[in-house]
Write a structure and sequence with these properties.
The chain has helices at about 1-15, 20-25, 40-45, 50-75, 75-90, 105-115, 115-135, 135-155, 160-175, 175-185. By secondary structure, the protein is an all-alpha fold. The chain has one domain. Helix 1 runs parallel beside helix 5 and helix 7 (about 115-135) packs antiparallel against helix 8 (about 135-155). The longest helix is centred in the N-terminal third of the chain and has 26 residues, at about 50-75.
Length: about 190
């Protein structure tokens, strides 16, 4: 019963849309009607407010990390992995927004950082390197997601690789329109209007 409670609480935490809350608080408009319509940091950046985008990135990552850390403190590693998955799914499919959420990259990285810090750091570095070299946020997310199970195998507890695979699968699913645009060379680069 405690495991179920922790999982539900992690999902509800993940369901909090910091991008929407921050953009509303700063009168930046409804993110669902701006740019890609996504509720994450990349779309907040399209409002022109870098501080709001950074805050969204940090808070979306923090909710994934908080779910993992809290569950681990209460019930151990298995609960931490389930809570990380639940928080991530909460971001993708938030109950408050009719189950239409973001693409989950920041929450994904927050979960990894809390689950196995060196693996999470390696995934963040993979995202950053890809973004700097190729200038595509979506491609950087896809490369970081694909590398995450490998980083967990190398740096994290081996039993967490399954979680890395599941999370990466969802990241790819949520980025299917970006993948189509990348293949057609129509995906906007970072900083493009």
């Amino acid at each position: 019963m405690m495991l179920l409670t922790v999982t539900v609480c992690a999902y509800l935490l993940g369901s909090v849309s910091f991008g929407l809350l921050i953009s509303r608080a700063l009168n930046l408009g409804d993110l669902r009607r701006i740019g890609s319509g996504n509720i994450g940091a990349t779309n907040v950046l399209r409002t022109g407010n870098k501080g709001a985008a950074a805050a969204t990135l940090i808070l979306d990552g923090a909710k994934g990390a908080a779910a993992v850390i809290g569950a681990r403190a209460l019930l151990g590693d298995t609960a931490a992995m389930l809570a990380g998955l639940a928080a991530f799914l909460g971001h993708l499919y938030p109950v408050w927004l009719g189950f239409r959420g973001g693409k989950g990259v920041a929450t994904f990285l927050g979960v990894l950082l809390a689950l196995a810090f060196p693996a999470g750091l390696a995934a963040c570095a993979t995202w950053l390197l890809t973004a700097v070299l190729l200038r595509y946020s979506s491609l950087a997310a896809l490369v970081a997601a694909a590398s995450a199970p490998l980083w967990l195998l190398v740096f994290g507890p081996a039993h967490s690789v399954w979680l890395g695979l599941v999370l990466a699968g969802f990241v790819y699913w949520r980025h299917r329109s970006n993948i189509a645009r990348l293949l057609k060379r129509q995906e906007p680069k970072i900083g493009a209007k």
